[in-house]
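Feature request disguised as a bug: please show the residue count (314) next to Carbohydrate kinase in the output. Example input:
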Amino acid sequence: MKKVFCIGELLIDFVAENQGKNLSVAKEFTKKAGGAPANVACAISKLEGKSIFVGCVGDDPFGNFLLNILEENNVDTSMAQKSEVFTTLAFVSIDDDGERDFVFSRGADKELKYDSSLKKDFKNNMVHFGAATAMLGGNLEEAYNRYFFDALTQDSFISFDPNYREDLWKHKEEAFIKKCMPFIQKSHLGKFSLEEAQLLSGKKDMDEACSFLHETGVVIIVVTLGKEGTLLSTKQFRKTIPSIEVSPVDTTGAGDAFIGCMLKQIAEHDNLETLLESETELSQIVSKANKAGAITTTNFGAIESLPTRKQLDF
Ligand code: ATP
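Example output, currently without the count:
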């Protein structure tokens, strides 16, 4: 089975307990582990795949808390780094109208330093670029781009999730698109939300958006559509794969569970070239990943709700 390296941020999400208030009046917060690449690493290891997290936390109690969670979930943290800079913190609340209030205190995630010793481990393995913060500068952005170059030269399977966060990129959308383009050009798998596919392609219509993204270079496109399932697209075919019916209570982490489950299944495949061209096999993989996403919505929190291998009948 191939290893999956997940590069990017691991941070604390402080979620306002008393929903219905904005951050200026919220008094109680719950401390949660956050960061899409870290969630994806946990999603893979909970399904008994091999995931390695590459990212940086502070050398402080929050950093220890975060790395402990990854280790409890059997993620390999040997390539994680600790910095003098404090762990990155995000504060989030949702008001009565569903509006998010968001404050971001960027810290140690941006301190990730490139480590050339990883390059040889990328050979014939998989690398997932899914950081929401990597394009925001700092050492992380430089490390991220250098790891991307290594993944290309080592024939790694490359997966990309742009993880667009409006809170972080308001009025800077063009810069975000420009930074994403090299990844879209060279990825085997691109995972997008509807909004991301539209933003990155500049096309409202999904057929046109997918065609544009394929022409740019990405081989397999998955557009996650919540309860409607997932649009799966290659240059040869395009179809929507339905999800299962669930009663959702919290959708946090559904997209990470979905892509983690796809990567775990791809990692088990011997012949990627045939897989990338097989409509039947890709559809089965997406169908199972839809189930992983759906199950994640049935509990509160992201990592806690990720399904196990048994739950997905592997
Ligand atoms: P995130 O906000 O975590 O980045 P996302 O927007 O990429 O996530 P979603 O579309 O919310 O991802 O969910 C990922 C997948 O999980 C969907 O493609 C779908 O298969 C499944 N899923 C999500 N919500 C539901 C739901 N309410 N019912 C059934 N399946 C769901």
